[in-house]
Each structure stands twice: as C-alpha cells, then as structure tokens.
Amino acid sequence: MKEKLLEIKNVYKTFKISKKQQKILNIPTAKVVAVNDVSVDIYKGEVFCLLGTNGAGKTTMLRMIASLIKPDQGKINIKENIEKDVKNIGFLTTELKLDGFFTPNYLFDFFGKLYHIDSNELLQRRKILFELLEIDKFAEVKLKNLSTGMKQKVSIAVSLVHNPDIIILDEPTNGLDIVTTREVIKFIKMLKEEGKSIILSTHIFDVVDKLADRVGVMVEGKMICCEAYEEFIRGMNTEEKFFKLYYGVKGVKENELE
Amino acid sequence: MSWNEIITIAKKELFKSFGNKRILFTTAIMPGLVIFVLYSLMGKTMANQQNIEDLNSSYIITINLPEEIKKYFEASNLEFQNVGYTRQDEMKELIKNKTEVLLVLFPDEFSVTGQDSSDLNSIQNIEVYYNSSSKLSSYMYSKVTTLINEYESSIFNLFDINNSNEQYDLASNKESVGRNLSAILPMLLMGLIYSCCLSIAAESIAGEKERGTMATLLVTPVSRVNIAMAKVTSLSIVALISGISSYIGIVLSLPSLLNLESLNILMIYNIEEYILLFFTVFSIILVIISIMSIVSAYSNTIKEATTSLSPFAALMMLIGLTCMIQTKPASHWWMYLIPLYNGVQELYGILISEINYINFTVMFVSNSVYVFICIFILSRMFNNEKIIFG
Predict the structure, then answer these.
(1) DSSP letters of B5-32?
(2) Beta bridge partners of A40
(3) Which of B14, B211, B219, B381 to mutate to test the interface with A (most CBs of A within 10 A)?
C-alpha cells in the first residue's frame, strides 16, 4: 500500500468581492466560492496532475496546500518530515518570483538559510541541483539578465532548496521554450523516481500525458474527477476527456459544440 | 523569534540597497551632497546680495550740502558729489534712468542750529530723490535717511544705547547657534527623512508585492513577525544612513547659510548631545518607517504607495515647523507621548541644550512601543491573503 503524504479533506474556500466586482461578474452575493468541498489524497512517489480552466480554483487549492492561505472549512494534513524541522512542501508558481537584483547563488543560499539548512548541506544541495538543472553556467549572473527558461530553472532549484517530500508545481512549463520544457519534464520525472510527491497544475495536455500518475479535474471550484491516468484516458485522449468533463458540468451538449 | 532569520532577511535588504551603486549614491551620498550644494549656494547668494549692497563706492548727488553734514557724511564713508541747484532736474532724470543713485536736496538756507522744534512751520524739509526699482538706490535711500536722522538725533543727544565695544548680547555662541539650528534643522530633517523613507518603504513592501517576490518570502517557514521586523530594521538602517548624510550636508552648509565664519559649529555639541541626537533621529525614523510600511503593505503598487503617503509629507513639515513657532520645547512629559511631535520636540531641546532626560525617556520608550505595535499590525497584514495577493 502506498504511503499517504498529504490528505485534503472537505476543503472549502470563499473570497469576498467588492460591489463593483459583483456587478461586473453578475453575482448576487458578495462571496465567491473558489474551492468547493474538495477532498483528495496524495501518495509518495506520484505525480498528481491538476487540470482546469482559469478561475477553476486550482491556484487557490495549491496556495492552501502551501499554507499561504487558510481554508474556511476542511483540513489539510501534511505528513511532517521528522528528520528535517522545516516545511515539507516546496512551492513553485508563476506568482512567486525571485528578485532580479540577485544571482542564483545568492538566492539559493538566502532561501537555504531561511529553511535553516546547514551550510555544508546547503553547499551539497546547491551542487546537485545546479548541476542537474545546468544553472552552474549562470550561477553568478543577476536574475534580471537571465532568460525566462533560466529564471524558471533557478525558481525550481530555490523551491527545492530544503529537499521537500511534497512539491507543488503550478504551471512549471508556462512560457518556456521546447528545449527547456523538455529539461523541466525530465527533471520532474527524476524527482518522482527519487520518491517525491508532485502536485502539478497545468494547461498543457502533453505535460499530463508525459508525467501524470493520477489526474484531477477542477471546474468551478469542484473536483469533478480524480482518477488514475490510465482510467482517465480510457477510450479517449486527455484533451477529449477533459472537455467531455468540462462541458458536462457546464451543461453544453456535444451537438451544440459541433 | 529567530534573530538569524531577521538578520538574514535584513542583510538581503541592505545588500540590495547598498550593493547597487546607483541606490547607494541616491540614499547615502546624494541627500547630503544635494543639501550641501543647495544650502551653500543659498547662503552664498544671500551673502552676495548683501555684498552688492555693501558696495558703498556708489556716490550720491547732493545739492546745497551744509558743511556740518558734509563732515558727517565723510566720517560715515559716504561718497558724494555736490552739484549746483540748477542741475536738479538733470539729476532727477539720471536717477530715473538709473544712471545716478540718489539725490539729496537741502533747502537754500539750511541750518542745523537755532531751529525751534516746537514750531512746525519752521521745520526744514530735506528732499531725497531715489528710484525704488533699483535695489542699490533703495538701499542708499534707506542708508542716507538713517544717517541724516542719526545726525539730527546727535544734535540733541542726551543718551546712547550700547555705544561701546562691550559684548552686550550675553548669549553664548553655542546658545545662539543652537537657537538658529533648532529653528530650521528639525523641519529640514523631517522633510528629508520623509523623502528618503518614502522611496525605500514603498519599494521594499509594495514593490515586492508588485513584483511577486513578497509571496516567495511568505512561503518560507519564517514567521510573519520576523519578516516584518527584518523589513522595518533594514529600512530604518537605510533611512538612518540617508538621514546622517542629510545631517552632515546641513551642518557643513550651515556656516554659509547662517553666515558663520568656520566649521566650529560641529564642535558646539558634546558627545552626550550627539548620542542623544542620534537616538532621537533613529527613533523618529523607526516610527516613520513603521507607519510607511503599513501603508506600503496596503498598497498593491509602488505608485499607489507613494500616492497614499504623499499627504504624510505635509504633516511632517507641519510638525517640523512647531520649532519655529514655539519659544521653548514642550515641557509636559505627556506631550512626548505624541508620535513624531515628541521626536521633533526632543530635537529642539537637544539643539538648544535644554535636555530633559524624563522627556527623552518618554519619547524613546513610547516610540519603541509604537514601532512594536506597527510591526505587530504589519505581521497580521502579511497573514491577510487579500493584502498579500491584492
């Protein structure tokens, strides 16, 4: 039986909106449900891909797992790493950016210190990650002078500075060129082989096909589907399955789509 | 509370501020340099204006100049040229077109003695023609009328006031310089502290929110209180360096501005007073930075933060102005509980060497309490998802 690292139980999250936003969105109440009664477990060594359109509640869900925000209801239980007295979660999202004034070396050490990593261990960790992600070549160049792909590699390295067991990657290949995308996918596979649990949110079906062990689909705050990848693609491809589920919730008939 | 975390974040902030030559120049060197150049120029301009007016080489024109007054003019180093009565209109025309400076026309039978002052009809009229659109002419008019009035008084002289080389003003150099400094320094310092705090506080919090780097910090296991403390500490250090730079600029330019002869002004305060001055300025900076940090955290962009903080400038200047209005610093201890006003009053007291340690303690302790309240509010704000994610 697989080891459960993360348990999300009946999580519910709402946001208050202004009267102006209420008018624009044509919503009768001042509250918007971002995540509606979501439950899911994440197991050791799996890649859980989260699919959904913009505003489906994926990012809110990931923020709650990373404890950046708190759920209104429900529980998120993370299995603590007893050996390391630090957060067992690494979080990479397009919203979280690194200061362009600093170099990858400086930022890696800075975040390492904030995670209370011992200086020798930090050195080792930097060596491994920088080598794997090929950051060594530009480790002393200020971030503002790096390309999007290079910056993303640094962000990945920094989010893994404390060697977490659970890694949240929110659209990790967004805006990357084909070569860097390939490198990032390869790196995620390697993390999985190391036994890390990865929660990956993406809009790119190809990334799901290459990485997913299980797939979750969120529409309007609800997790409408959560199953093994093989089950998910049974009889159709990822894209077809996603739109079938999505339009199913939206109440659009197939013939209307055609 | 982990000091290591606070130091790590504060070091990063300081490295960012001082690792960049441009920022280093604008925060640590430029404030002092700008003030020094600006105030020195202001002082020199004022001195030059005075010098122009002191150039008494310009002579005046006189008609019917009596012998007694001639001697008095000569004794007063006033140069003149006596011309005939017939040239009166010609001289007036020359004054009109600013070729000549002044014309003093004495009556034909002018006599300095034997006049009955009680008979108003017998009072002789001396006519002084000048051109008010010329600074020199106006100045000479004032000088000549004063001289003539003095001469008139000397004829019936009964007593003089302070007519010897004795030092009549018993205030020490320190007191008089301190009085001058206390009138302008607090206001200048408040203005300068405001401007340097504004840019760094807006950049450090609203700027980080705008760029998305603040959320990256909040994902780490560092407590929000520690992040708030580190931010306020590093910002205060940068602002303090800027404040010291401004202070040095002010002090170095004061001899020019106040027309003092040397830099002895630096020596008028002792070590104890400088230490108190340092802690007072630091305390003011901490309060300002803390308040600004809260406003900055509420804002989503640097522009929004600076706009929200702009009314604060007027308040700061107004508080700084109180030293010009008041004859002495606030005496009641409870007045030193009022944030910002307490710091300005303490500065006032130190500059005129009227130090009250109870008031200083009340000011310093109350400001420290306000700063901790602000840090607490800031840490709560960092927990608020609406504030962090807009």
Answers:
(1) HHHHHHHHHHHHHHSSHHHHIIIIIHHH
(2) A8
(3) B219
Mutation site for B-interface testing, chosen from A14, A62, A63, A99 by largest number of B Cβ within 10 Å: A99
Q: Which chain B residue's Cα is nearest to A103?
A: B16
Tell me the average pLDDT of chain B. 82
Q: Is the pTM of this model over 0.80?
A: no
Any idea which residue has 């007027």 for tokens? Answer: B314
A69 at interface of B, judged by CB pairs closer than 8 A = yes
Model confidence at A201, pLDDT cuts 50, 70, 90, reads very high
- For chain B, the distance separating the N- and C-terminal CA atoms, rounded to the nearest angstrom, is 27
The size of the A-B interface in CB pairs under 8 A is 59
Band of residue B57 on the pLDDT scale cut at 50, 70, 90: low
Q: Is pLDDT of B11 > 90? A: no
Q: Which fold has domain B53-155?
A: D-Maltodextrin-Binding Protein; domain 2 (3.40.190)
pLDDT for A211 equals 92
Kindly state the tokens that stand for B382. Answer: 């960092």
Report the CATH fold assignment for A1-82+200-257. Rossmann fold (3.40.50)
Q: Percent of chain A at pLDDT above 90?
A: 36
The answer to whether residue B216 neighbours chain A at the CB level (below 8 Å) is yes
Residue of B nearest to A112 (CA): B220
Mind telling me how many Å the CA of A253 is from chain B's nearest CA?
A: 37
Which chain A residue shows the shortest CA-CA distance from B384?
A: A69
Nearest-CA distance B286 → chain A (Å)? 25
Cα gap A226→A39, rounded to integer Å: 10
pLDDT reported for residue A107: 93
Structure confidence at residue A106 (pLDDT): 94
Interface check for B212 against chain A (CB to CB < 8 A): the answer is yes
Predicted pLDDT of residue B117: 56
Report how far residue A170's alpha carbon sits from residue A180's, in angstroms, rounded to the nearest whole number.
16
B220 touches chain A (CB under 8 A): yes
What pLDDT was estimated at residue B331? 82
Asked if the C-beta of B211 comes within 8 angstroms of chain A's C-beta atoms, the answer is: yes
**Closest Cβ–Cβ partner in A68, A99, A106 for B219:** A68
Evaluate whether A104 touches A139 at the Cβ level (below 8 Å).
yes
- The answer to whether the Cβ–Cβ distance between B218 and A95 falls below 8 Å is no
Chain B residues in contact with A97 by the CB 8 A cut-off are 211-213, 216
Domain chopping of chain A, boundaries: 1-82+200-257
B219, A91: Cβ pair inside 8 Å? yes
* pLDDT tens-digit map of A71-113: 999 998 887 655 555 568 888 887 778 888 899 999 999 999 9
Mean pLDDT for the stretch of residues B132-144: 85
| Residue range B209-234, pLDDT digits in tens | 888 888 888 888 888 888 888 888 88
As annotated, the residues of chain B forming the CATH 3.40.190 domain(s) are 53-155
| Of residues B5, B20, B215, nearest to A96 (C-beta) | B215
B388 in Cβ contact with B382 (< 8 Å): yes
Report the SS3 class of residue B156.
Answer: coil
Give the pLDDT confidence of B267-289 residue by residue, as tens digits: 677 888 888 888 998 899 889 98
Sequence-separated contacts (24+) of B323-330 with Cβ below 8 Å: B323/B182, B323/B183, B323/B186, B323/B187, B323/B347, B323/B348, B324/B183, B324/B184, B324/B187, B328/B352, B328/B354, B329/B354, B329/B356, B329/B359, B330/B359
